[in-house]
Amino acid sequence: MEISSLKIFREVAQEGSFTKAAEKLHYVQSNVTMRIQLLERELGDRLFQRTKAGVILTPKGKILLEYADKIIFFSDEAQKALSASGDPQGALRIGSGETTSSIRLPSYIAKFHSKFPKVKLSIHPGNTGDLLQGLIKRELDGAFLYEDFSHPETVSRPIFTENLKVVTPKNFRTLKALTSSLDNLSILVFKPGCIFRNRLEQWLLSQKIGPRTVVELNSMDSILSCVTAGMGISLLPESILKSRKLDRFVSSFPIPKEFSLVRTFFVFRKDVSPTTALNEFKDGLFSSVS
C-alpha cells in the first residue's frame, strides 16, 4: 500500500468525485480511477459507492480513511524531522481565541517572526471547543485554550490569566443597580462553548437572576458596540477593556473570583514529535512567562 495511493484515496473521499480529485491533484482521471481500483484489489473490498452526485465512502472506505489520515500525517512528520536543519522553518499553525491573539500575543509573535523569519506562522481563530478539535484532527500544531477543556491526547501548560468583568451600558453606576434593572437588557454573548458565556450564566444563576433574552454575536467588537449602544450586558476580559480604552463608553464591575478568573493554556498533542519551529515557539513562550 503506497502513500501516494492513500493520498489519492483521501482526495477522492474529500471531494466526493474522481473528476474533482484528479483536477486538484493535477492527474488525468483515468490514473486516479486506476489507482483506486488497485487499492481496492489490494484490500479485497470496495472503498467507494457511486451516487448521482458522485461517490461516497463504503463502510470499509470510512475505516481506511481514518487510518490513511494518520499514515499520511506521520509520513509528513517523518520527512520534516529528517530534513530539519538548524534553523526552524516550514508551517506553524497556532489556534487562539480573540483576546489572546489581539492582546496577549502580538509582541511575542513579532519577536518570534523576527528571530525565525523562515517559519510560516499562521494564527487560526476559534473558541476552545473548535480549537481543541483542530488539535485532535492535527489541523493545528498548538493552541491557546481557556481552562474548560480536557482531552487525554494533549499536553498543556498555563500561560496567562484573564480577569473577567461584567460590562454594562455607561448609565449604570453600581452592580446593584444593574441587577435590579436587567429586565430591559439582553445578555450579549458568543456562541455556546465560550467560557465567557458560561461564566456569565453561572454568575447570573448565583445572583438568582432568571433567564434573559440572549443575543449571540461573533466578535468582541460587536459585543462591545452593542453594550455601548445600551442593548445589554456581557462578561469580558479586563485586558480588552483597558486596551480599547472604553471607560468613557461603558461601565465595568468586578465579580467573585470563582467566576472572574480564567486561565489560558498552551496545548499541543502528546503523540506528535514537535517540529523545530513548534519547539522554539513553546520554549520562547514558556520562558517569557516563567
UniProtKB/TrEMBL annotation:
Return the Pfam families for the record: HTH_1 (PF00126), LysR_substrate (PF03466)
GO function terms (MF aspect): DNA-binding transcription factor activity; transcription cis-regulatory region binding
The positions making up the signal sequence are none
Check the record and name the InterPro entries matching this protein. LysR_HTH_N (IPR000847), LysR_subst-bd (IPR005119), WH-like_DNA-bd_sf (IPR036388), WH_DNA-bd_sf (IPR036390)
Domain of life assignment: Bacteria
What keywords is this UniProt entry annotated with? DNA-binding, Transcription, Transcription regulation
Keyword ATP-binding (UniProt):
no
Question: Where in the numbering of this chain does the HTH lysR-type domain appear?
Answer: 1-58
| Record flagged with keyword Plastid | no
Similarity field: Belongs to the LysR transcriptional regulatory family.
Q: What is the protein name stated in its UniProt record?
A: LysR family transcriptional regulator
Which organism encodes this protein?
Leptospira barantonii
